[in-house]
Amino acid sequence: MSGFDSHSQTLSKLSEQHMSKVPEAELPKSVSFDPDTLNFDEQYKLLGGSVIPRPIALVTTIGPDGPNAAPFSFFNAIGMKPPMVMFSMSPNTKAIKDTLKNVQANSEFVVHIVSDALKEKMNICAVDYPSSVNEIERAGFRTVPGVKVTPPRIADCPAQFECRLIQILTLGEVPYYVVIGEVVYFHFHSEIVNSRHHIDYVKLDPIGRLSGAGAYTRITDHFKMLIPPLNEAP
Ligand SMILES: Cc1cc2nc3c(=O)[nH]c(=O)nc-3n(C[C@H](O)[C@H](O)[C@H](O)COP(=O)(O)O)c2cc1C
Question: Which one of 72, 118, 210 would you pick to mutate in the ligand 1 pocket, going by the greatest count of ligand atoms within 8 A of its CB?
Answer without folding.
Answer: 72
